[in-house]
Amino acid sequence: MSRVIGIDLGTTYSAVAYLNNGKPEVIPDKSVGKELSSKVIPSKVLPSKVLPSVVTFLENSILVGEPAKRAEFTSPDTTIKRIKRKMGTDYKFSYKGKDYTPEEISSFILKELKIRAEEFLKEKITDAIITVPAYFNDNQRQATKNAGRLAGLNVIRIINEPTAASLAYGIKPEEDLNILVYDLGGGTFDVSVLNVAEGVFEVTATAGDNNLGGEDFNKRIMECVLENFRKETNIDLSEDMLAMAKLSEAIERAKIELSSAESTKIFVPFITADEKGPKNIDFELKRKEFENLISDYVDRTLELCRQAVSDASLKIEQIDRVILVGGSSRIPIVRRKLEDLFKKKLDASIDPEEVVACGAAIQGGIVQGDINGIVLVDVTPLSLGVEVENGFFVPIIERNSPIPTSAKRIFTTIADNQKSVDIHILQGESMYVKNNISLGRFRLEGVRNARKGEPRIEVNFELDVNGILQVSAVDLDTKNMQGITIVNQNRMSEEELLRIQKEYISKFEREIKKRDILNNILIQKTRAESMITKLDSILPPLHQKYLIKDEIKEIYQHINESIKELNPEKMERAISRLDFLLSELTAGSYSSVEVN
Known about the structure:
The chain is of the alpha+beta class. 38% of the residues lie in helices and 28% in strands. It has 13 helices and 27 strands.
């Protein structure tokens, strides 16, 4: 088997890691590393070892990662973020008459990570471990596996993110510990309780919320800023995609700064304009105010922690270690409330944004046999079962069952001489079918003629190490059998998967050549925006509106065109014009740039 990489496919950031002499290391992006040498961009805002989970469709290319994040300002309507929240659904993104599924969009991110690994390791990569939130259902896990295939990866294992994180901490085999992994990322929250004894990592309980994360914290800040701006200017920015993209980045930066500062400024120049001229957002946010905005979200995560501990048949005081995962776990109110709940020091000695990828790489080493003495026992997060009469749900595999596992149950007919039985497979915890997640259906034909209640139909569930489900049903009298492998109901056909795989492989080979050009253009764009901000600070009041309306507006147009046309020369000309304006204004020659 070739080298196995570990991938954390995250909602806001993703990462890829490998084993280096038995130790996991996250692979950096060399181009991002160069950019970090600038003092303008704080490393916490633009980490060098993580890839923004952002995809932007342009006229001539598809951008992924940091270039896509920067391109959002000029192409907000073709930029896709947080696609992980759409995995396993029938969501489609349309561009130029073509629909893209969440699997396809995620495959762009995975392909970029694959390329990063191949460039760094200087070898062909095909095998990967990919992590998913512990609370991902079967459809979402299948969608993730399909995304890997589209990216040219053989996904040899899907493992839960909290489980991967616990592996990364290198618990000693002789230790006997109860560990709680608190994973608060950009889009999802997961908590897992593990027992570690004699090298066996056994997940004993898991809980979570697929729609709770740092992005939800950002939304609370966004609502506050927009309302304040609306009161001050009577302008609603919520429908202005470009304005919202700029504000989103400023809010993310402010949220991060509040982890080390008591207050911060959310400042976005030229966010919009009215008949009186341009408008800026200049909003001060104090840490205490931010904490009040998100306190209920944090309390929700604590409630899920208590649930997981209870499901593991433990008490809070029996938890020996609390491991932090995810960028949002850095937020002070989160750490403070966790320490109050568990009465112990939290463990964040490994970077919370890298720890999951590291754990996935370790799991790759276990699968390959490079790491011995560790056995990983994961659990299924939701009960799996079937629909019975009157719309009720009957579990066959209970929540928090260790995987791989199998279970069977005998059912019967509900009508005399019934010739067939419909098997409806669901996932969830409600006794009512309507409240659970439908995974698939199949029909068992050839049931023997008999009065209702007499035939014996055995339904067998088999859940593999990836959390992928196979279901079969057999009439124990006639021996007729039917079965199904549960897959994402919205997934593409096998033929479609193979066609797109082939198409993407050739497309990405072409786009690698364009990537450096695009990246350089977008870096220049950041420089141009800094120059425009400087211009705004030195413009005389009487001339400001003319410059904004004409000269700078025209320069912005050329900047946007240079990105769409992949034209670095046009970008250079735009920057030269900005240089000229700055020199003229600094020298006091305002009349030379005035537009009448």
